Amino acid sequence: MLVATFVTYSRIQPAELYHVSHEGLRGGFSRAVVELNFPDAIIAIPLALLALDVLGRSRGAVAATVVAIAACLVTAFPGVVDRDDLDAKAVNVVPVVGVAIVVALLVKAWPRLGWTRVRLPGDPLRVVLGVVIAIGAIPYYFADLGFYAPDPIRADEPTPGEDIASVHLGSHEGMDGALLAVAALLLTRLTPSFNSRRLAAATSTILALYLAYGVANLIQDDWLEQVVKRGWTDHRIASFVAPQLSVRWLIVIVVGIALELLWFRRERSAGG
Asked: In whole angstroms, what is the distance from residue 225 CA to residue 154 CA?
């Protein structure tokens, strides 16, 4: 998706995109940097823990993992990824460095990295959820590539009260959510084979929260763009992107914990 973002934001004028101001290659590079912050840096955190489990707890591996995760977490600070201003800023370089360290750790761990080939109890549910997520993200595949999705998806029709398409070209929160959710579904297949049970539990819990958070963002974006903007209802679901003290965020956390306790932890127990 990073390549698609770079190409789309390089060739399309900012007026057709969303809250960006740079044009040409500068625009593509700028938006790609922001995408490396969110969702890429968030996805990189459990990948760093995966690499640490494979590499062992040497001082070098632990130090690199701590630095990488700390850099990636900068993304969560207010204003680092501002949905009202998606041009890259100097602070956005910090999570990019974190992602680069995680990539280096994964390259080093790759020869010893093993995929869980045994069928896990939750695999049928993974497939079902994966298909549902893929269908829900259809409008955003097209948008990321710089095109409007065809009917019956609402895409190039004007947004009521705004001078922009219902599904603007470029990156969307719904796609970010879909990527986080799919990453969670895939990476939780690896946690049963972790050497460290504590590290497996921590990674699995993070991924369970990612799954709940990702699906919530996908539902919110689809509801807004395919239901509210058609005029079927005036009720909007508030954004889930930024963490906050609210009932909806409490629901996300409760669902994430439930996924860990009732699904992913049981798979680890069965695999162990």
From this structure: 7
